[in-house]
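Session log. Operator J.P. requested a structure for one protein chain; no other inputs attached. Running the standard single-chain path with token output.
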Amino acid sequence: MKTTRVCAILLLIGCTATLSADTNQPEYVKQCSRSDPKLITCLIDALHHLRPYLSAGIPEIELPAVEPFRMDELTLSLTGGVNGYKVQLRDLYIRGASNYTVEDIKLGTAFQANVRLPALILDAHYSSSGVLIILPASGNGTFHARFGDARALVKGNVSTKPRDGKTYLNVDKLDVELRVKDVQMRVRKIFNNNRILTEATNLFLRENGQEVLKVMEPQLKRKLSALFAGIVNQLLRHVPVETFLTP
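Structure written below.
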């Protein structure tokens, strides 16, 4: 149904809200009408209205803050061979996800949204092993990355579940794909602060940023999709469709 498809998009990107017991509209809710001829514009405006609330979190609807959001780890094989250069990033914290702009939404049996992010900032613990170019490069330190002008393509589908006379949604499948125009990466405090190894690693990251990101992409896609689907479904268990759209 049209209502289901519209709410799926709204909830997918993070638009979550409930009405209080006395039906007063919370400040973070911008409701839309199903009869509005500019419904898509209204939905996009509602998503943009929510940005500061998503950043801080909304405890009353069990929405955690998305600034920052945490990922457990990424394991990367950057060069091949027996002594290939391998990197593990642990305790990743990513900032900038709430500073989004929704550029387009397509509704249908499968939904799709195009989202722009000015920058995603990633900080993590860094450990490496193997040989980088010709230098042994095993060590630990910190990793920092800036993914500038990022575009996210969000796709998925939902199912509906009636409960207590209202309709609730569940995300059955969610995929997030990132395209990043500007990639900057660097490491610090590694190899016991060995200047030569640190500079060699940072030179490698500067010259091969897009290639390193490509190695990250399969894991990033899988982890981001699972992370966002989990957050969305947690919200959907508490928020009925009827909350967001008026007749």
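Operator note: Residues 4 and 241 are 7 Å apart (CA to CA).
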